[in-house]
């Protein structure tokens, strides 16, 4: 995707369900939202912002949001099948600010931006990294700062900057898949060394599980996801190298859509009121909190 700075605490009780053999369940994640999480944070409707919503959203009273799960702790399902996570709590707060209800539609990650372009979804919410390339397709409203973090089996020494010849797991269509690992692999081959064997998985849960089971040497993912996976692995995984390549997360909306400026103002209002910071703290991801939301804030 997708994905922030290291999680310092995990307020959520969601678990990556690992069996004694180290396998995940079919969903890849399980758990519940924080017991005193963002649902307890007061958010009020902003009538002035609500009046600026596009007619489609205003008349329906719904903000249709495309999402790909699981990607703990940002978006995943609790045991009842409800989609929860940091992203969900923040978008729910945005919807309350705008006086509408967020309606989440599951999708393959790669299909979310095209569906936003076509108007099937009003916006996307799946830890998207705001990039110059993606900004050619859609606009982004930034809401968080994300970095890349590698993990490897505990006790195994892996250097992300010297991983030539290693098998590295990534989730398909993430920035780790399309940009970061390929660039590292090219540096290897340019130096006359073996390429990195990039192993793609449809879900991050499967990528993480491959590392736990020793099917690959390491994984690369957004830093909160990696930190969360390490914490929930029961000591089976450890960080490999430091967080790098920090970049903004953003909500994709149709290019030139009137929804973009309204979302940006709604996010900023939550930042200014302190509700935004409380939501990040409830999930332990406050290290990546931003002071200002912008439209199209890509670094690269």
Automatic annotation (TrEMBL):
It comes from the Bacteria. One of its GO terms (cellular component) is cell envelope. Residues 1-19 form the signal peptide. InterPro entries: SBP_3_CS (IPR018313), Solute-binding_3/MltF_N (IPR001638). Residues 62-287 form the Solute-binding protein family 3/N-terminal domain. Gene3D superfamilies: Periplasmic binding protein-like II (3.40.190.10). Its main location: other. Coiled coil: none annotated. Keywords: Signal. It is found in: Cell envelope. Belongs to the bacterial solute-binding protein 3 family. This is ABC transporter substrate-binding protein. It comes from Williamsia herbipolensis. The lineage of its organism: Bacteria, Bacillati, Actinomycetota, Actinomycetes, Mycobacteriales.
